[in-house]
Amino acid sequence: MHPDNAPVSSLEQALHAARALVLADLVAREVADADVVSLVEESVAHRRWWVEQWPEGAAFLAGLVAQDVQDALLERYGRWPVCPVCGSGDPHALEVEPELGPDPHWVCHKAGVKVAAVGSLGPGATGGTPAP
């Protein structure tokens, strides 16, 4: 409950959940500096407007915020999250799948595996499960 005892809206719950999942992945990969956390906040603010226009999209927020942060990090710092599965070749980033859908995962397209659900990314351990 908010301090004014009003229940938290489902929109706010979805936004907070998306923020928490992406922050968990950033912390797991040790890149959750203040400026990176600001990128998450910028995405959440942008997505708040987006989901107010399309409430049915609330289930897609985690994947969209993850993609927003990934894009912003690429512009400023480089690839994130770097694939922990492929040990050789050029380092490459994982991608969020589905691009617009519920239950988003980090996927390595090169190896064809799901690495982790958004919010459950480990510190870089190898492994993964075959992507459908």
Categorize the overall geometry: globular
Rg on CA atoms, Å: 15 Å
Given helix and strand content, the structural type is alpha+beta
Low-confidence runs of at least 5 consecutive residues: 125-132
What strand line-up does the widest sheet have? 1-2-3-4
* SSE ordering: HHHEEEE
The gist of it:
The protein has 132 residues and is of the alpha+beta class.
Write the layout of secondary structure elements.
Blueprint: H1 10-28, H2 34-53, H3 61-76, E1 95-97, E2 105-108, E3 113-117, E4 129-130
Antiparallel strand pairs: 1-2, 2-3, 3-4
Helix pairs in contact: 1-2, 1-3, 2-3
Task: Characterise the protein shown here.
The chain is an alpha+beta fold and 132 residues long. It is 42% helix and 11% strand. The chain has helices at 10-28, 34-53, 61-76; strands at residues 95-97, 105-108, 113-117, 129-130. A 4-stranded antiparallel sheet has the order 1-2-3-4, covered by helices on one side. The longest helix is centred in the first third of the chain and has 20 residues, at 34-53. The radius of gyration is 15 Å and the shape is globular.
